[in-house]
Amino acid sequence: MNDDIRLQDPLRASTFEELFDSFQPTLTDSNLFNQRLERKLALIDEIRQAQAAQIRRYRMAVVAAFVAGIVLGGGLLTFILTTPPSVPLFTFGINFYPLLFLEQNSRLIVALISSLMIAFCIVAIMNSSEMISKQRKFLFYEQ
Fold first, then answer.
1. Cα 104–chain centre separation
2. 70: Cβ–Cβ under 8 A, 6 or more apart, which residues?
């Protein structure tokens, strides 16, 4: 198969040649080009500054959530573990064995669940801060 267009259709080839020959690009003023370029570069700088401010705000929110979670989680665990062991945290008022088991071990179950939630939140926040650092590297180092 021959890809030369002139051999396939001479009329079509002459149309393309006329089209390309008739194209006369106009040269723009270099000052106008420089102004447009500077305006676009200024817009890019504004966007980068806005994204950097957004990352700072997001990082502060993550740190605040981290500190609040540690304080509240620690307070909850302290409350659970310092209350008298003879008083269950919740009661069902029924003598069904699985519910009775939950009632008798409510303190340990709630402490375990709250510890797991605190650990999960710490891991999630660490992943978020890693994501923020990756975004920062992408924004400022990949140009």
1. 42
2. 118, 122
Question: Could you tell me if 73 and 120 are in contact, meaning their C-beta atoms sit under 8 angstroms apart?
Answer: no
The CA–CA distances, whole Å, from 20 to 4, 10, 13, 31, 119 equal: 17, 15, 11, 28, 67
Q: Mean of the per-residue pLDDT values for the chain?
A: 76
Q: How far apart are CA 66 and CA 7, in angstroms?
A: 72
For the record, the structure tokens of 56 come out as 């700072």
Identity of the highest mean pLDDT range in 13-22, 24-33, 48-57, 78-87: 48-57
CA distance 55 to 47: 12
Please give the pLDDT value at position 9. Answer: 58
Better pLDDT: 80 or 53: 53
